[in-house]
Design brief:
Helices cover about 30% and strands about 25% of the residues. The chain has four helices and six strands. It has helices at about 1-5, 10-20, 35, 100-115; strands spanning about 40-45, 50-55, 65-70, 75-80, 90-95, 120. Strands 1-5-3 form a three-stranded antiparallel β-sheet. The termini are far apart.
């Protein structure tokens, strides 16, 4: 959604939760994710902070099935407790051809995240 429709994921999620219509000039009547990408499923991952200091995190994700990677934290940031479900250090959009591939890609993205971040 992020790349294909130029939407803010946080704003879109909040609008959906509130029952507000999602509007965007790039979306025409009947123009949906499914019509633009008929053979793709999409997953959205919030990466929550660990307790401790995030020493480093990746600047970008180059995996083919990563449609969007937005880091919210910076290196050398200390986290203690989350105060809401929106206290993410990053969020990532992942694609797959079917549910099995999407689930595998989500697991791979999480392993990529774990391998490319450092906490102390």
């Amino acid at each position: 959604m992020l790349e294909s429709f130029s939407l803010s994921m946080d704003k879109t999620f909040a609008q959906y939760q509130c029952g507000d219509p999602i509007t965007n000039d790039t979306i025409k009547d009947g123009d949906t994710w499914r019509e633009r990408f008929p053979n793709k499923l999409i997953g959205w991952i919030y990466i929550y902070p660990n307790s401790g200091t995030l020493v480093s995190l990746p600047d970008k994700c180059d995996l083919d099935y990563c449609m969007g990677y937005i880091p919210y934290a910076t290196g050398n940031t200390t986290f203690e407790n989350r105060s809401s479900c929106f206290d993410a250090v990053a969020n990532i959009l992942v694609t797959g051809e079917d549910e099995e591939e999407l689930e595998g890609n989500i697991n791979n993205i999480y392993q990529w995240w774990e391998a490319n971040t450092q906490w102390k």
